Amino acid sequence: MVELPELFSLVTEEEGLTVQVTPRADCLGLFVAEVTTRHIVVKELQGGTSNAPFDFTINGVRAGYADYQVMHNAADVVPGEVHNPQRGQLDE
Q1: Which helix (H) or strand (E) covers residue 26, if one does?
Q2: Which residues contact 91 (CB under 8 A, 6 or more apart)?
Q3: Could you tell me the pLDDT band of residue 70, with boundaries at 50, 70 and 90?
Q4: Would you say 24 and 53 are in contact if contact means Cβ atoms under 8 Å apart?
């Protein structure tokens, strides 16, 4: 079990959490058995008991932003202007 910092649970929605784990030693593989804004539980596949260390990344939605719609088009931000990634500037 990995306890997460209190601040994470204060600013993150409980729904929609995802976790990726990467083992740092030989083992049978890992899986996330439980995830909350307060902790994650990681176990070894096939009942393994290697106690291998691992890295993890957890992603969630900021509290209060579950219905936030991301803008996908620069023209939605500044009408009439389009970002040109090759030149690194806005074109009209």
Answers
A1: none
A2: 81, 82, 83, 84
A3: confident
A4: yes
Alpha carbons 58 and 19: distance in angstroms, whole number: 4
Q: Which pair of tokens denotes residue 71? A: 């803008």
Tokens of residue 63, six digits: 């509290």
Is the distance from CB of 59 to CB of 15 less than 8 angstroms? no
Query: Where residue 83 falls among pLDDT bands split at 50, 70, 90?
Result: low
Per-residue H/E/C for 34-87: EECCCEEEEEEHHHCCCCCCEEEEEECCECCCCCCCCCCCHHHHCCCCEEECCC
Relative to beta strand 30-35, strand 18-23 is: unpaired
- Rounded to a whole number of angstroms, the distance between the first and last alpha carbons of the chain is 53
* Global confidence as pTM: 0.71
In Å, how far are 9, 13, 14, 74 from 63, measured between CA atoms?
Answer: 9, 5, 8, 26
